[in-house]
Amino acid sequence: MGGRIVRMADLEIDPAQLDAYKALLAEEIEASVRLEPGVLMLHAVSIDETPEKVRLLEVYADEAAYQAHLATPHFLKYKTQTAAMVRSLRLLPVTPIRMDAK
């Protein structure tokens, strides 16, 4: 995948704040994809049986794009406003095998 950076995050959200978290996450993803050329993909899903468990799959053009993303106002807003909602966050090391989209 060249110099691309692929990240996966495993989060657990306070169930009482799940709707507010999802709204802030959706806002952050929309802004990131629209405003940042180096953000190639951001996907968020929740586990059906335990919707407070959220997984994010992120693809960046390169390390510089990833680092730039972390410093954007929309990402910093998301991190600040969701800090008390996130019960746990693990960044999982991943290696892409094959990633196609249509």
Describe the structure.
By secondary structure, the chain is an alpha+beta fold. It has one domain: Alpha-Beta Plaits (2-Layer Sandwich), CATH 3.30.70. The protein has three helices and four strands; from the N terminus they run βαββααβ. It has a four-stranded antiparallel beta sheet. Helix 1 runs antiparallel to helix 3.
The CATH class is identified as Alpha Beta
Second-tier CATH architecture: 2-Layer Sandwich
Q: Which residues sit in consecutive blocks of at least 5 with pLDDT less than 50?
A: none
From the spread of the alpha carbons, the general shape counts as: globular
Largest sheet: 4 strands, antiparallel
How many beta-strand elements?
Answer: 4
Q: Write down the domain tally.
A: 1
What's the N-to-C terminus distance?
17 Å
Instruction: Kindly provide the radius of gyration, computed on alpha-carbon positions and rounded to a whole number of angstroms.
Output: 14 Å
Order of helices and strands: EHEEHHE
Quick check: average pLDDT? 96
Structural class: alpha+beta
Strand percent estimate: 25-35%
GO molecular function, one term: monooxygenase activity
Keywords: Monooxygenase, Oxidoreductase
Protein name: Antibiotic biosynthesis monooxygenase
Domain ABM: 5-98
